[in-house]
Amino acid sequence: MKLFTSVHDVSDINALAAEALQLKQNPFAHQHLGKSKTLGLVFLNPSLRTRMSTQKAALNLGMNVMVLNIDKEGWALELQDGAIMNGGTVEHVREAAAVMGQYVDIIGVRSFPGLKDREEDYSEAIFNKFVQYCGVPVVSLESATRHPLQSLADLVTIQELKKTARPKVVLAWAPHIKALPQAVPNSFAEWMCKADIDFTIAHPAGYELNTDFTDGATITNDLNEALSGADFIYVKNWSAYEPYGKVLPGNEDWMLNNEKLKLSNNAKVMHCLPVRRNLELSDEILDGPNSVVVHEAGNRVWAAQAVLKQMLETL
Amino acid sequence: MKLFTSVHDVSDINALAAEALQLKQNPFAHQHLGKSKTLGLVFLNPSLRTRMSTQKAALNLGMNVMVLNIDKEGWALELQDGAIMNGGTVEHVREAAAVMGQYVDIIGVRSFPGLKDREEDYSEAIFNKFVQYCGVPVVSLESATRHPLQSLADLVTIQELKKTARPKVVLAWAPHIKALPQAVPNSFAEWMCKADIDFTIAHPAGYELNTDFTDGATITNDLNEALSGADFIYVKNWSAYEPYGKVLPGNEDWMLNNEKLKLSNNAKVMHCLPVRRNLELSDEILDGPNSVVVHEAGNRVWAAQAVLKQMLETL
Amino acid sequence: MKLFTSVHDVSDINALAAEALQLKQNPFAHQHLGKSKTLGLVFLNPSLRTRMSTQKAALNLGMNVMVLNIDKEGWALELQDGAIMNGGTVEHVREAAAVMGQYVDIIGVRSFPGLKDREEDYSEAIFNKFVQYCGVPVVSLESATRHPLQSLADLVTIQELKKTARPKVVLAWAPHIKALPQAVPNSFAEWMCKADIDFTIAHPAGYELNTDFTDGATITNDLNEALSGADFIYVKNWSAYEPYGKVLPGNEDWMLNNEKLKLSNNAKVMHCLPVRRNLELSDEILDGPNSVVVHEAGNRVWAAQAVLKQMLETL
């Protein structure tokens, strides 16, 4: 594997998820693969789970890790081709990416969307420039429109915990006070549409996702209907795709609580975290027996390790 | 050892100090213990000595280390149970701690007090929540009310440098322009009260420490009397416990200088650092033959290594 | 080697450059040297290339690395001897440096000039205090007036790519909107003056460098004349030495472009990066066949590794 930026980079998602679960059983079996190899993690935005789980995955594989918070330890990058750089940007991404590629064997990049200009965000300009210029394999640590390491960990969690061959999985929109990216729901949707599951997306009217990511999903504005018979409920807020990046008024009643959970098939409740308690999910859910959010976060290690292992094997 | 947050977590402080001194003689003898084990260091506040010495200790034991400046690289944590998280906090400490525990084998946490609300600070809310939810052994890197790795290094330093079986040790308050926590003096006092020494605390009236930490100490407002015959003088500023977190006017003459040092038994002068020169301690002391502050800082490695070693042995 | 702060610390620059090129062929041959040894990298200013390349060099040698962004993760250092520290500085560099020396085997320090007070900057106060008090070998990661790891990498690049025994190398001033330090051009000049090359410095009137660094160079205000027959053009902006730290009006036509490049002997174009595109260097140059800026940045690893190797050999 040379690139891990979306589900389209993976030939067999079930095999990759199975490999992650094997690594979970035997984390240190492949330390020879990473010997004298270095992973560079470049953050243009904050991170806790992705930062720590990807580091841990690399260490399990015997790699060295260098972390660069380029926004805080470095400087502002120029993205525009042809720019006359007489303003605030200090280095063009062409040079920055190419230089980092001189120092590491694999690069992970995190770059959030601005949520101002949909076309710009969905063009994945900065991400694609890193891929184009760095000259080494690139892992997405969450881009403007996708978060594939999260989605793989989610698939791993579902494969690991499912009690039926083809569980019903519901992506359920939840309220938030801030405008959040569509990266996690986009990415979850495109992975679930390829998985052996029955997939439903529930959101209030106005929160339709870009249809590029939802082909094959059942989509409804009726949360209760969606929850009926659900084996997994994946709770997540996102801002509107149209009008782009907006939070629409109302919909506070979309918070998942025990009353709504009763409609499901005793569903496991998932969330990528961080979660706003008593806004997206009630305390009773998060502290109750159906929440698997911490277990799911733990699986981030094995997802990242499966991807890094496949990249190391092709170096 | 599963927890290192105060002297009460240690069954035999002399044995632990002795182990630290053995590690100083042979730093790399236990690298097998840390193989494929990871230490996570979580900082909610700045750090130099604790950050570097604890990393070094872990590396000496063959561990991997992941550092997270959660205030800068992550986001604001919610501490209040039951909070409706519609404000500035992004993640509840329940999730943050539990998730970190998925990625590391031992967690170190630094969290300073706010110095506004004494009850809140002395409840050690954030610290106790980390311990409660992370699911792995926890080392204090300084909490609101204690700094046990510092105190152990201080005990190690006294054991190493003492010239009599039962030296006289004086904790001497010193002036400062800012309101500083009581963590270092609290912690030093509770360790010294359990050590084989003659322990005196000297401070101006109004700077009484919480008596939970000082049981067995001689306490005086007369610095000169305290210094008489002292073998070790531990200089440190702290703000008042009552009224909480306040700096009282006056007392500039409590700065230790050579003239005062003459009253002692040619005492070694200690300080946890960082030290304000010519405010807490004069240049002549810090640059003179009696200062052991750098040596003491060096011993932070062996203190941390002894604690981490005992934790690794129980994993 | 105990100190690497300028060309004067190196007995034979050609031998050191040759060693760097040998390490490039065989990066992991000396991992025993760094076993259980720790490099501390202390940044008082941002860094990308130096940060990553020096870490990579240390990892190649089997060392552990601890990075400290003291300005962000620590606190403000006091530099003035005799200061009464009742202001904003939290720790004197005497203690900070001495303490860090307790935790690491080699220290790298980055500290930029203030560009306000020439005498202060050129005294290298903070740098010299680190050297004086830390007690371990010190590598400059760029100081107020020099950047020797960059200069060594530049020499390595010239040795590696030259097509004649004694190439003509031109240091060519270029425009910028900010006042930049003289560290890179000073350092490049003093290394080139000792190398087996024909060295010319071209800059507009008013940008004369301190003559301590330029002894033996041909110096001209005529860029076209300088470029004639050049084999390597090293493009770099710097602010004036007199009046200190100022950007003089005009000189925008000093940007290197393909038209000017034609005057040269099909020269390789170098730059230490970060580079302002279309201000210092045109896109056509940076994206064209003559640019070696990324290759040059890659050589930073081997320069740092050669220096660290020589230091490890004398520990």
UniProtKB/TrEMBL annotation, chains A, B, C:
Aspartate/ornithine carbamoyltransferase Asp/Orn-binding domain: residues covered: 184-310
Binding-site residues for N(2)-succinyl-L-ornithine, renumbered to this chain: 142, 176, 236, 276
InterPro entries, sorted: ArgF'-like, Asp/Orn_carbamoyltranf_P-bd, Asp/Orn_carbamoylTrfase, Asp/Orn_carbamoylTrfase_sf, Asp_carbamoyltransf_Asp/Orn-bd
EC number: 2.1.3.11
A Pfam family that the UniProt record links to this protein: OTCace_N
Start and end residues of each Aspartate/ornithine carbamoyltransferase carbamoyl-P binding domain: 4-160
Keyword Transferase: yes
Amino-acid positions noted as binding carbamoyl phosphate in the UniProt annotation, renumbered to this chain: 47-50, 75, 110, 147-150, 272-273, 300
Pathway note: Amino-acid biosynthesis; L-arginine biosynthesis
Catalytic activity: N(2)-succinyl-L-ornithine + carbamoyl phosphate = N(2)-succinyl-L-citrulline + phosphate + H(+)
Gene3D superfamilies linked to this entry: Aspartate/ornithine carbamoyltransferase (3.40.50.1370)
GO terms for MF: N-acetylornithine carbamoyltransferase activity
PANTHER family on file: ORNITHINE CARBAMOYLTRANSFERASE, MITOCHONDRIAL, ORNITHINE TRANSCARBAMYLASE, MITOCHONDRIAL
Family: Belongs to the aspartate/ornithine carbamoyltransferase superfamily. SOTCase family.
Name recorded for this polypeptide: N-succinylornithine carbamoyltransferase
Gene that encodes it: argF'
